[in-house]
Design brief:
An 8-stranded mixed beta sheet has the order 16-15-21-24-30-31-32-33, sandwiched between helices. Strands 4-3-2-1-8-11-14 form a 7-stranded parallel beta sheet, sandwiched between helices. It has a 4-stranded mixed beta sheet with strand order 12-9-10-13, with no helix packed on it. The radius of gyration is 24 Å and the shape is globular. 54% of the residues are buried. Helix 3 crosses helix 4 and helix 5 packs across helix 11. It has 15 helices and 33 strands. By secondary structure, the chain is of the alpha/beta class. Helix 2 links the parallel strand 1 and strand 2.
Length: 546
Amino acid sequence: MGINNKIIENMENLIEILSNIPDKSVIAISGFNNSVTPLYIMYSLIESYRKYKKPKNIFLEADSFPGVPGSGLDIIMKEVYENNWTDFISGMLIPYLYRSEYLQKLAINNTMEIYSFSIGITTSLFRELGAGRPGVITKVGLGTFHDPRYDNSAVNEKAMNIKRCRADLIRIDGEEFLLYRAPKPEFSFVRATSSDLDGNLSMEEEGIFGATLPVIFATKSNPPGKVFAQVKYLVSTRSRSPKDIHVPGPLVDYVIPAPREYSPQGSTIYYDPMISGQSIPNEIKIKMQNREMDERFVIKRRVAYEIAKLIGREKRDIVVNFGTGLPTEISAVLAEEGISGCIHTTVESGPWGGVALSGNDFGLSYGPYSIIQQADQFIVYEGGIADLTSLGFLEVDKNGNVNPSYTGNRIPGPGGFPDISSGIKRIYFAGGFTGGIRDIGVHDNRLIIKKDGNIIKFVNSVKKIFFSGEYAVKNNREVLYITERAVFILTEKGLKILEIAPGIDIDMDIIEKMEFKPIIDEYVTMPHVIFSNKKMNLKEISNCLI
């Protein structure tokens, strides 16, 4: 039959249609930073409220953060904050707030109710709602910010009181689980590359699939809602292989051809066929690490050294995840050492292999050999299929609990941190031992602290728990905390020192810079080769022959 009557060809018509969305509706928006984010529809929603003051008091749900600073949801939050549109958005479920200073201000000011499930849980939630199930049952989040015995995923007091989204503690065969619940979306905004005249959507130029299909499933489940799909191109029906169709046409209510500038692959990349997999690079070149021999140089080399030892023990290739920040630089060390061929890197949005991008383009990879759906990628993490992850940290306490980023006046949200750290077998936390302004370097294969940071990161109790040391011990996770001057391991009795850097005084440089005393039995000096500007011979250690 075709969908010609459902194609919305200009913004004015789209704004008018959006103004007919009932007040208090639940709207889901899919997007990972600027990847597969329906920017054109989102900006039209702003104009609908500006022009018609409708819809009002909507509740937004996102599978990650659809936008970056100065784009997408950040623009909406800026308008809400600066214009005091208190009756536009009543609340939000969002895994990551850090992309918008305005959203953080609105959360801290208690202007709207803000909930923050992790990315994996939120993505899985849309699948479960699509199947008509009550929510997500999982062990992810036990003993953390998500647990109802702590914050129940509520970012502010308003959310804590209303509890529109929540996690309930349940028991199955005597074991603890969390049941995450949130309202079913009545409308959804998604993005694809192309639509034919029957509304079949393909994503050939996108760098990821994201959670597009789960969001649509949740919207179309009974009672069915309306799906708005932004595309670059309209193509003729039956012009593509059925296997290239990511969303069947009957699931789509409105197709919105948008100007091309509203559909970038990432934040700094409009289109690169190496990112979407339409062109396969003959060789992938990884940018070599910064040769400045500072504390970051030491930390990432020490993590790489541990990864090489793991490959040697397992005698096989391994699957890894590197978090944002310092861990993203570890790949360059592995490439320089010649053992990348034994390591399969993954990004939480779906890519496998290639070179993971960072900053506002995080979520994309250059030259991946596979791209899977976001919900499936988190099965790899939550199910313990991946072998290890390296993640950053802001605070670690005496029980091994980790706060990756929360400061009180900065509320980033959990992102994918709880999903990844709770399921993967081995977690190598990596970061500087202290915070603040510091001058730490390497000289003569020794660590030299010229100026130490004045912020203590190893504390009695973290401000917010996003990784539970107690549950990690219960589940037999191997947990290391790798810094430039010491390596700790998590035990049943707390943190134990395994290694200290050459040139470091354990009392003056470590114990006195912690709020608690770690377990000190036998410890060794970190391998001196880590503190040199030479290769560490990781091919020999790993026995990686590729």
